[in-house]
Design goal:
Elements lengths: L1 H4 L2 E2 L3 H9 L12 E5 L5 E7 L5 E7 L2 E8 L2 E3 L11 E16 L7 E14 L5 E9 L2 E8 L7 E7 L10 E4 L12 E4 L5 H4 L14 E2 L3 E4 L11 E7 L7 E6 L4 E6 L8 E4 L2 E2 L2 E7 L2 H5 L3 H4 L19 E6 L1 H4 L8 E3 L5 E6 L7 H14 L3 E4 L30 H10 L3 E7 L4 H17 L4 E5 L14 H16 L3 E4 L15 E4 L6 H5 L9 H5 L33 H10 L4 E3 L4 H5 L2 H9 L4 E10 L3 E8 L6 E7 L4 E6 L1 H6 L4 E17 L2 E12 L4 E6 L4 E10 L4
Parallel strand pairs: 22-25, 22-30, 25-26, 26-27, 27-28, 28-29
Antiparallel strand pairs: 1-7, 2-3, 3-4, 4-5, 6-11, 7-8, 8-9, 9-10, 10-20, 10-21, 11-19, 12-13, 12-15, 14-17, 15-16, 16-21, 17-18, 23-24, 31-32, 32-33, 33-38, 34-37, 35-36, 35-38
The structure holds 1-deoxynojirimycin and calcium ion.
Length: 734
């Protein structure tokens, strides 16, 4: 699909000059044996060639400094096929060409996007006459490459043992990473100099139910920053990730500290190969985003640019049924142990004692009505109900989980049909919940029945979940088999007009551009850990780290918006380790088109000031801009609402140190219409360090500013935040 949308256009003279100039390196390389690509703005220069041993290599500079030292590409196979590593010959080179695209997004951080890239392809041939190609794109914000294996007489399929794609970063940047876990991304981040990273020594599996860490590898996105001591590259930021992951395992990156090599290590499974692919086949894009600061990384949309355009809506309705929504749900009360997912007491084998209720079941008809009333009263769009279906007595901690859940049988105290009707009458979406407990075959068998039931009840969105070790055994959450499964859920759900929010997912690689019904996912250590992690919850620096790591890949169902921060009386040993304004700001900072307000209705009713912001903040945006930030320290993000009054929402979150910040309001002028006076009403939600029974007190202030030359100063206490709404003041009579 990607190939068919590619379109070469004439190169502007300036670009041709840049491209020609770049062909001088490596110095002794004849120009017909290397592909030189320069980004449209001239800052990134990439060279691809084969070295003296016939190994395909890449190297790259950014702003005149070496970014990638020679980095090899290659593959090894599990079926006796000779490796594609050395002894490769360049058969042909095409490019450079300029590739431009602009496209609309049905929902997201922006309503439309534009990108330009310099593209090229090298076709290689092995000594055994096996053909393969590497497509490369160099953009102003980074570079990407992927391998294509065409169909050919001597191969119709491949059993790939390993992909050896290197990204050997120059110097010794600081890396923010989570382990290259084959089953979970729900780790705290670690910060180490890249070339002395020891994943196993730093790895902790606190409160992670299923984890498989095999080597000195990290997951992606991994974010890096060159230290001030590296004067040539100081402050340059890079994020390494992948785009358009289909039919293939997720990639981790193994760090060879001795050789200073950073190389893909694919997630494996029960077979001697990691990927079995039919030809023709294209791997995901290996991506490297580069920016002069952390904000630049967060403002890149490279992964979307590398995905194929929107596919046709299988329902024939042009995806009009995919609707961004803010939701509340029967969720946090289970994480707090106020209620339970299950209904029945259990016998000594863990089996439900049917007819013997423990009385704490959360998903009852009555309790759901309470949430529906609350959601309707305060203008939310949806209500999630977890624990509605039978099986929760044995959902974790049991080896054989096949058949434990089905996705059509409600507990007897939850009247699904009646509740769906009441939700409809109130104009609310009843969001379905399918916890598979990683019994994936059970889910595969029931997907059609489950989605058909949802469609018949008017349910347009489902949260899925994959807690525990994958059945069948030997498969991993991030391996090829599961990547294919997750994709099947997206495609099958689309046939029924259903959108997905996937927990314990495969990472986001921009597929939402092609499949708009893949709205959100978890894929990181979210709010839930604050309720039950043995170490007391996520430390405050976790959120400004997520903003520059996990969130680079796409929307996250982090479930922000906790307002009762002490978790008292339910969880006396845990608390939400951030302030109230920080929780409000998260709904701006962490984009999710299906955005939760996680706390309990009674807690929101007790915090009307906080609720006012949560009610106002949209979850779908005309534009977004990270104003500034530092990985793991702080971030300030501004986003513009779609339509309406043209309001701008701003969120700032802090780590654990006191911080004073000043920002200019240029973003207001740049993105706003001319139909107003240039003055804005600014409403600010900030923390005051007056401790209340549930956390800090919140101050809401109102002010007006003149956008010309305006600077805003504010301070954030450790763990605090700041949330603002800027409303344009209209000209009289217009
Ligand atoms: C883990 C998910 O992250 C959480 O949101 C959900 O409540 C539980 N699994 C139960 O499905
Ligand atoms: Ca989870």
């Amino acid at each position: 699909m990607i190939a068919s949308m590619a379109r070469s256009i004439f190169l502007p003279p300036v670009l041709i000059a840049i491209l020609l100039c770049s062909c001088s390196h490596p110095a002794d390389m004849p120009s017909d044996e290397q592909l030189s690509l320069v980004s449209p703005d001239g800052r990134i220069a990439l060279r691809a060639y084969v070295d003296t041993e016939g190994r395909p290599m890449l190297e790259a500079d950014w702003a005149g400094q070496t970014l990638l030292t020679p980095s090899a590409l290659g593959f090894t196979f599990a079926d006796g096929r000779p490796p594609l590593r050395s002894h490769q010959r360049i058969a042909s080179i095409s490019g450079p060409a300029l590739f431009e695209q602009s496209y609309a997004l049905p929902w997201g951080e922006a309503d439309s996007l534009y990108s330009e890239a310099t593209t090229g392809t090298i076709d290689f041939v092995s000594q055994e006459n096996f053909h393969w190609s590497v497509d490369i794109r160099v953009m102003n914000d980074g570079m990407a490459y992927r391998t294509r294996f065409p169909a050919q007489p001597n191969a119709d399929s491949l059993f790939i043992a390993e992909e050896h794609s290197q990204m050997n970063l120059a110097g010794d940047p600081t890396a923010w990473w989570i382990p290259g876990d084959w089953d979970s991304y729900e780790h705290l981040y670690h910060q180490t100099p890249l070339w002395s990273t020891d994943v196993k020594a730093n790895w902790d599996s606190l409160a992670i139910l299923c984890t498989t860490v095999k080597s000195n590898a990290v997951n992606t996105p991994v974010t890096l920053r060159w230290p001030d001591s590296d004067s040539a590259r100081a402050g340059t930021h890079v994020a390494i990730h992948e785009a358009a992951l289909y039919d293939y395992p997720g990639a981790t990156f193994r760090i060879d500290t001795a050789q200073r090599v950073l190389e893909t290590e694919l997630v494996g499974g029960p077979h001697p190969w990691k990927a079995a692919v039919a030809l023709p086949f294209a791997t995901p894009w290996r991506t490297l985003t580069v920016a002069p600061d952390a904000a630049g990384l967060a403002n890149s949309r490279m992964a979307l640019h590398l995905n194929a355009p929107q596919t046709e809506d299988p329902t024939g309705n042009d995806w009009s049924w995919v609707k961004p929504m803010k939701y509340v749900g029967i969720w946090w009360e289970m994480h707090l142990d106020k209620a339970k997912w299950s209904r029945w007491n259990q016998d000594e084998n863990g089996d439900a004692i049917i007819g013997d209720p423990h009385g704490l079941h959360g998903a009852t008809t009555e309790n759901t009505r309470r949430y529906l009333d609350f959601a309707a009263k305060h203008g939310f769009d949806g209500v999630l109900v977890e624990g509605w279906n039978t099986g929760w007595e044995k959902w974790i901690g049991f080896d054989d989980r096949e058949g434990v859940f089905d996705f059509v049988t409600a507990y007897g105290d939850f009247d699904l049909v009646q509740i769906a009707e009441e939700a409809r009458q109130k104009g609310l979406q009843l969001i379905a919940h399918h916890e598979t407990s990683a019994a994936v075959t059970t889910y595969e068998h029931q997907m059609d029945t489950a989605y058909a039931l949802m469609a018949s009840l008017g349910q347009r969105a489902v949260k899925t979940g994959y807690v525990g070790p994958i059945i069948p055994r030997g498969e991993h959450h991030h391996g090829q088999w599961m990547v294919q499964h997750y994709q099947r859920t997206v495609e099958r759900a689309a046939q029924y007009g259903i959108s997905l929010n996937i927990h314990e997912p495969i990472k986001d690689t921009g597929i939402r551009r092609t499949w708009p019904n893949l709205m959100s996912r978890e894929g990181a250590r979210g709010q839930e850990f604050n309720a039950w992690a043995a170490n007391g919850g996520n430390p405050p620096e976790h959120n400004p780290t997520l903003a520059f790591t996990r969130l680079l890949s796409g929307p996250m169902d982090f479930t922000p918006g906790a307002v009762h921060l002490s978790l008292d009386p339910y969880k006396p040993n845990n608390r939400v380790n951030t302030s109230l304004a920080h929780q409000l700001a998260l709904s701006v900072v962490f984009h999710s088109p299906i955005q939760m307000a996680c706390d309990l209705p009674e807690h929101y009713e007790a915090h009307p000031k906080a609720l006012a912001f949560i009610k106002a903040v949209p979850c779908d945006w005309a534009w977004s801009e990270v104003i500034e930030g530092e990985v793991g320290e702080y971030i300030i993000t501004a986003r513009g609402e779609k339509g309406g009054q043209g309001r701008v929402f701003l969120g700032a979150i802090n780590n654990g140190v006191l911080r004073e910040l000043t920002f200019t309001t240029d973003f207001l002028r740049e993105h706003s219409s001319t139909n107003h006076t240039g003055r804005w009403l600014v409403e600010t939600w900030s923390d005051i360090p007056t401790f209340t029974a549930t956390g800090w007190a919140l101050a809401v202030t109102r002010d007006t500013i003149d956008v010309e030359g305006e600077k805003i100063n504010f301070a954030m206490l450790p763990g605090a935040g700041n949330a603002r709404i800027f409303t344009p003041l209209k000209k009289d009579g217009e």
